[in-house]
Structure formats: structure tokens, C-alpha cells
């Protein structure tokens, strides 16, 4: 069965909490898009506004995030649901240890944000075994980015995430049909590789994505903007 992962682009902590509450008990994991306003134009929780260059964790942070980092509270409903963090940020490598304090089961880097590929590969290879045993690592790639950039990293990651459009950091964006070709190439080259798709996934595109080889569908507006979230998630789960 295809894995359905609701995607949350949280305006603030209350928005994050409310959206998790909507899908708690319906899915085992949600994706949280963390946007810093530097790598992408938008800013999302835990940042209160677009971050400036420099150490973005010295200020501009939601108080709940600070308490989570200090182990004074946990993520909303952490007892009932797991999290994957989609790091649409410029500092994912430098602040990797901070992001792990949110307790994610998966962390996704964006290949367009990591700089030199060889250096990034060395970073991935240097992650300690305890972290690798507890957190799956994925790498996302935009439609306009050549697939060859990600091939050297396959041995170091657990899955890839094909972004459905180059306009990332937003929801409700249409799917670029170039993504179908990328998934097909990935599937032919790496038969067992888990492939997620994020952006542009809806009831029209989902079946085509699955046909080309996608195994995970990351879905935002097509779930949260529907009148019946329970029925919608079930419909996506029943696709083949």
C-alpha cells in the first residue's frame, strides 16, 4: 500500500498543533516543512519571521520551539504520531544537531541547499551510528536539478523526495510533469529505493505518480483543504 504523509507548512505553533490533531490516528507520520526565509522566500514555524543571515537560532524563535530544545516540552501529540522534517533552510548541515532535538523519525535535506556534493556526502557518512539507527535521512531534488547530482549520495541515504515543482516552500502549487520522468529514471536505476513526491499531489496526479514508481505521497492542501479529511486520506491510501 502506498504511504500517505500529510504535509504541514505551519504558520505558527497553534497551526502546527491543530493540523496534527486533524490527522492524528489516521496516519503514522506527518511531514513538517521548516522554512527559514533564506533558502526559500517563505518563513514557517519555528521562525517568527523571515530569518536574517547569521545565527538564526539566537533570536526570532517561537517560545514552544525553545522549550522543546530545552526538553521542557515535546512536539505536539508526539506520543501518538511521528514526524519527518523537511528542511527548506540554508543551514541544515550546520544546525543538524538542533533539528534532531525535535525528535524526528526522518530528516530531509534539499540538494540545492547543501553546497558541494562531495562535502555533503562526507557529512552524511560522518553522522554517528546512533543517529542513523534512529533517524532516516532523505534528500529532496527539484525538477530543474539534474538527477546526476543525487546519484553519488544514494548509498548514504534512505530515500529520495522528488519535489513536484521548483517553487518550493508553498502549498497548492501544480505538479511539473517533468517529475514523472525523474521518478521513472530513479525507479529504473534503483529498483528498491523509496521515492516520495511532495508538491502537486492530488487525486488526479497521485495514480500517475504511483504508476511511475513513487512509494510515498506527501500531500498538503489536497488533504487539509478538503471537507472530509478522514475520507480523503482513505481515498489516497486505496490508490494503486
From TrEMBL:
The keyword Acetylation does not apply. GO terms for biological process: carbohydrate metabolic process. It holds the Pfam family Ribul_P_3_epim. Keywords: Isomerase, Metal-binding. The keyword Repeat does not apply. It comes from the Bacteria. GO terms for molecular function: metal ion binding; racemase and epimerase activity, acting on carbohydrates and derivatives. This is Ribulose-phosphate 3-epimerase. It comes from Candidatus Nomurabacteria bacterium CG22_combo_CG10-13_8_21_14_all_32_8.
